[in-house]
Specification:
- Helices cover 76% and strands 0% of the residues.
- The chain is an all-alpha fold and 231 residues long.
C-alpha cells in the first residue's frame, strides 16, 4: 500500500491525465484550424509553415495515446508503466517546445518569405486563370489589392480588388479609388503571424503544464519503487 502522500500523488496524476487529454484535443484543434487555412493558400507559403501546423497535430495525437499509459500506470501502481509515461512526456515536451519555437521564428520571417512568392505569383496570375481565381479569393477575404498595392495589377484592376468575386460581379469596373488600399503581403503576413503565434503560444504553454505531469509521475514511480523495496 502506498503512503497517504503517495496516494495523493496518484490521484493528482489521474487528474493531470484528464487535463492531459484536454490539451491533446486543444493541440489537434489548433493545428487543424491553422492547417486548413494554410492549405487554401499553400501556393503562397513555404512548406515549413504547413509542417509546423502538422507537427502540432501529430503531438496532439501522441498526447492522447500517452495519456493511456499515465492512467494505467497510476491505477495499477506499475513502476515501469509510470516511468514510460514520464519518458514519453519528456519527449512530447521537446516536440511541443520545438513546434512553439518554430511558430515564433516563422512569425518573424513571415513578411520576408511571403514577399517574393506573392509578387512572383501575381505576375503569373495575369495570364493564368487558375492562379487568378486564387488571387480573387484572397483579395476578397483579406480585403487587399495586389501584392504590395493596387498598382501591381497595372491600369486594369480585377473586381476582387473592390471586394467582389468575378462570378457575382456588381461593379463592372474596379478603380484605384474604390479598391482596397492595403496590399495582400501586408494583410496575409499579419494573418500568418497571428496563426504562428497561436501555434507557438499553445505549444510552449502546454509544454510547461506537462512538466507538472513529469514531476508527478516521477514522484509516484519513486514511491511505488520504494514500496516494492520494503516488501
Amino acid at each position: 500500500m502506498l503512503s497517504k502522500s503517495s496516494a495523493c500523488v496518484k490521484y493528482l496524476l489521474f487528474f493531470f491525465n484528464l487535463i492531459f487529454v484536454v490539451t491533446g484535443i486543444v493541440l489537434i484543434a489548433v493545428g487543424s484550424t491553422v492547417l486548413s487555412y494554410y492549405r487554401e493558400y499553400d501556393v503562397f507559403l513555404e512548406y515549413r509553415y504547413i509542417s509546423a501546423a502538422q507537427l502540432i497535430i501529430v503531438v496532439g495525437v501522441i498526447v492522447l495515446i500517452v495519456a493511456f499509459f499515465g492512467c494505467c500506470g497510476a491505477a495499477k501502481e506499475h513502476y515501469c508503466m509510470t516511468m514510460t509515461f514520464a519518458g514519453l512526456l519528456i519527449f512530447i515536451c521537446i516536440l511541443e517546445l520545438a513546434g512553439g519555437i518554430a511558430g515564433y521564428v516563422l512569425r518573424n520571417e513571415a513578411a520576408d518569405s511571403l514577399r517574393e512568392s506573392m509578387i512572383k505569383d501575381l505576375e503569373e496570375a495575369k495570364s493564368d486563370h487558375t492562379k487568378m481565381e486564387e488571387w480573387d479569393k484572397l483579395q476578397v477575404e483579406l480585403k487587399c489589392c495586389g501584392a504590395i498595392n493596387s498598382t501591381d495589377w497595372g491600369m486594369e484592376l480585377p473586381v476582387s480588388c473592390c471586394g467582389v468575386y468575378p462570378a457575382n460581379t456588381t461593379p463592372s469596373v474596379c478603380t484605384s479609388e474604390n479598391a482596397f488600399h492595403s496590399g495582400c503581403i501586408e494583410m496575409f503576413s499579419a494573418y500568418v503571424q497571428d496563426h504562428a503565434l497561436s501555434i507557438g503560444g499553445v505549444g510552449i504553454g502546454i509544454a510547461f503544464i506537462q512538466f507538472v505531469g513529469i514531476v508527478l509521475s516521477c514522484s509516484l514511480a519513486r514511491a511505488i519503487r520504494s514500496e516494492y523495496e520494503t516488501v
